[in-house]
Amino acid sequence: MAADPHASQFMTMLLKMMNPKRTIEITAIDPVRSWYEIGLPFIIKAGIEDKIDFIQSQALPILDNLLLVRKEGSFDFAFVDADKQNYGNYHERLMKLVKVGGVMVYDNTLWGGTVAKHDGDVPDEKKEGKALAAEFNRRIAADGRVEICLLPLGDGITICRRIS
User: Fold this and answer.
1) Could you say which of 52, 87, 109, 153 has the lowest number of CB atoms within 10 Å?
2) pLDDT in tens, the chain (164 residues)
3) What's the total number of domains in the chain?
4) CB neighbours (10 Å) of residue 76?
5) Is residue 105 part of a domain?
6) Residue 131's domain is classified under what CATH number?
7) 35 within domain boundaries
8) What angle do CA 63, 114, 161 make, to 5 degrees?
9) Full-model pTM
């Protein structure tokens, strides 16, 4: 997402408007530290390294632990750009961790535009991602606990506001 200037600009504006106090970013929870280190020079340049607590782990166990040690609705904002097969699992946990009125943003929900194409028009290497993104989109579109907006910025950004 950081590679798309429109998506980055939008996310910056959204966060400034929201002014969240407690945020969680699933990309800051990763079993591979080198992914975090790629972005570290930008984090340092922005002067926010003291605000980021990178956790080297799979995300689901960390979210499960947060559900045990924090009260429901502890976070104002969540951003997810992680393994697509777990987006639904992340969503369910974040629905408990993010407060009513809070926002969850999911990246890559258009999967390079493939979600709108017939399978025959999608390269084999993108078919699994297309299926995962399409299933996640269907799932949250039917979720009455959130209001959603899917933006065609970058690789697709879906914004969910928790309403119940």
Assistant:
1) 52
2) 456 889 989 999 999 999 999 999 998 899 999 989 998 999 999 899 999 999 999 999 999 999 999 999 999 999 999 999 999 999 999 999 999 999 999 999 999 999 999 999 999 999 999 999 999 999 999 999 999 999 999 999 999 999 99
3) 1
4) 18
5) yes
6) 3.40.50.150
7) no
8) 40
9) 0.93
